[in-house]
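Translate sequence into structure tokens.
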Amino acid sequence: MRIDLNSDLGEGFGPWTMGDDAAMLDIVSTANIACGFHAGDPDIMRATVRLARDRGVAVGAHPGYQDLIGFGRRRIPGLTVAEVESLVAYQVGAMAAICALEGYPMTHVKTHGALGNVCADEDAMALAVGRAIRAVDPDLAFMVMPGTATARAAETLGLTPINEIYADRTYADTFNLSPRSEPGSVIHDAGAALQRVMTMVSEGCLTSTYGKRLEVPIGSICVHGDTPGAVSMARQLRTGLEEAGWTITSGVAKAS
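Result follows.
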């Protein structure tokens, strides 16, 4: 049995750092790297790619809204479909160039924060992101939330989907993430996170806070790198999964 463990990394800026990326990269099999709009900068992007390459961790672009102050977690009303296509293509293209500098292929794209939430809800925006990915490199996979517009967009556009679940977040009945403002929506207890993950991967389903189920093959598990105790949670998740017979490996084969 194989499963991918991913984390959103490279989310500092200049001299400021967020989380312990080096420690997380010793645990996860896939890294989603910020591309400079919600966090990150060219030097951090390159350093994170290098750390991942040296550990054999797959890397992908993690584009978000152009909102450093809000960390890409605030919705930006009024953006057109064309503007979303442009901002995603810009960031994915930048990550592709950084990966080329390090001689290490990029495997996938995962949207960040508010952009990801909007794309999960709105087919037009999810398709805009998918078209941007396909324009940069049609072989890139699209990391999606099952049961949402992102999953539909990947299928419509012929992109390889990676069905992702979150270890440290709860789900609404739409199978989008519960709002962070909702009590209990962010899970800080590693034991509780592991129990949820084991249930979802063993049963092949997502379960909402209110018990609604969606049967779907699960390809990757995300543990956020910016939450308190993230490294400890990731380590306990990996250990628990391996003890249950799962092999931790990237969900996408790296291109030659």
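Note: The CA atoms of residues 127 and 153 lie 5 Å apart.
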